[in-house]
Amino acid sequence: MRAVIPYKKENAKSRLSTIMTKEQRETFVEKMLLDVVATLKEGGIRNIDIITTDTCDVKREVKANIIEDDKDLNDCLNKYLSQKEEPILIIMADLPLVKFSHIKDIVASKEDVTIVPGKGGGTNILFIRKPENFRVKYYGSSFENHCIIAAQQKLSIRVYDSFLASTDIDEPQDITELLLHGEGIAKDYAEKRFGKKEGKGRVKISPFNEIPMS
Length: 214
Description:
two-stranded antiparallel ribbon
């Protein structure tokens, strides 16, 4: 069994640009990646590949196999899957709330394909028991895409329902969930910049503008 993490650092997370500089966002995504790698290892997965457009974007402290590929996300992942004969777990790099218990539960699934939906119809995690004949289709409503692809191949599907595993960090309001529910170094980094502001509605983040971030 292997896990693969698509990863982009350069000018990452543009939707967080209203609350973080480019350099801060790049540091933040790297810390989220480190959290995901640590969670995979804690969940029992030791064979981890990171697909990135530039190997220089990945620090040496990320103890995983680095694959440099400048193709489109779907193209590089489908090429990767076509070369594998063992079960593959595809997990996005912006999931610092995922726990090792989620990973263990997902890879223990008996179904051919297990899908963890993300916000807005995305796919956060995809576990494929026989990857050589499966093709991914991210962007748009990728959750529906992957359900259709699995059904067309007559593969059994499990939809994994988890708030934490379905919460990817894309928007400023997602930082609130990280502060409330996170445990790793991405949360530590966010805590240096943001506090929680409570009101009559939902909890929101409040920037600590006076605190510089490296």
